[in-house]
Amino acid sequence: MLSAGPTPRTSLDTWDFTLRGASNQSARWSWTEFLALPRQTIKTDIHCVTKWSKFGTTWEGISIDTLLSESAKHGVQPAQYVVARCDGGYTTNVPLADLMGDKAWIAFSYDGAPLPPEHGGPARLLVPHLYFWKSAKWVRELRMMDQDAPGFWESLGYHNYGDPWREQRYSGDE
Ligand SMILES: Nc1nc2c(c(=O)[nH]1)N[C@H]1C(S)=C(S)[C@@H](COP(=O)(O)O)O[C@H]1N2
Ligand SMILES: [Mo]
């Protein structure tokens, strides 16, 4: 499964990224502001639920740690659960702990080039240690919440957490 709908095309003039806290405080970056944040290069393997893996992929992005510390300056409080929201309506849920500690990024470049629209450009969530359906393409917002809430595939029977090493594909997989 690659995309649940058509590829959205948001112009960089109107693109923004929001990190929202549980009591609705938020920090927002325009594309220019976003690219001015300290970035990292990430070399990692990725795992799709339908069994393929890709080894040694190279990305560039802003870590969620960086976004959390920047947004804390605007009074955004962290909360235990996160839903990623995307252009096109796709959502996926991840515990905040899985996005911290240099384990997740908002990536805007792949193999040294801007991330192509069909792969989530201008920017996508990258959570390499979970199945790739958690790596939301065209992401525009991370919303932190006190309660967990299933995203698009999770509410259609995919596993809530999605650890590839434990092969957590479907709800019910231990
Ligand atoms: N917004 C959005 N993100 C998404 C999806 C989607 O349908 N919409 N599909 C997920 C799934 S199931 C996979 S396997 C990967 C595919 O990423 P790729 O197209 O870059 O290979 O994106 C994930 N992120
Ligand atoms: Mo997938």
Which terms summarize this structure?
single chain; 174 residues; mainly beta; 5-stranded mixed β-sheet; 10% helix; 33% strand; globular; binds the ligand Nc1nc2c(c(=O)[nH]1)N[C@H]1C(S)=C(S)[C@@H](COP(=O)(O)O)O[C@H]1N2; binds molybdenum atom
Helix/sheet category: mainly beta
Helix share, percent: 10-25%
| Rg over alpha carbons | 15 Å
Distance between the termini: 22 Å
Task: Give the uncertain stretches in residue-range form.
Answer: none
Count of helical segments? 3
Question: Strand portion, in percent?
Answer: 25-35%
Chain-averaged pLDDT: 96
Bound molecules: the ligand Nc1nc2c(c(=O)[nH]1)N[C@H]1C(S)=C(S)[C@@H](COP(=O)(O)O)O[C@H]1N2, molybdenum atom
Strands of the biggest beta sheet: in what spatial order? 2-1-10-5-6
> How is the main sheet built?
5 strands, mixed
- Which sequence of SSEs, written as H and E, runs from N to C? EEHEEHEEEEEEH
User: How many distinct beta strands?
Assistant: 10
General form: globular
Describe this structure in words.
- By secondary structure, this protein is mainly β.
- It contains 3 helices and 10 strands; from the N terminus they run E-E-H-E-E-H-E-E-E-E-E-E-H.
- The site of ligand MTE has 16 residues, from loops.
What order do the helices and strands come in, and which of them pair?
Elements: E1 16-20, E2 26-30, H1 31-35, E3 40-47, E4 53-63, H2 64-72, E5 81-86, E6 91-95, E7 105-110, E8 113-114, E9 124-126, E10 139-145, H3 152-155
Parallel strand pairs: 1-10
Antiparallel strand pairs: 1-2, 3-4, 4-7, 5-6, 5-10, 7-8, 7-9
The protein binds ligand MTE and molybdenum atom.
The site of the ligand Nc1nc2c(c(=O)[nH]1)N[C@H]1C(S)=C(S)[C@@H](COP(=O)(O)O)O[C@H]1N2 has 16 residues, from loops.
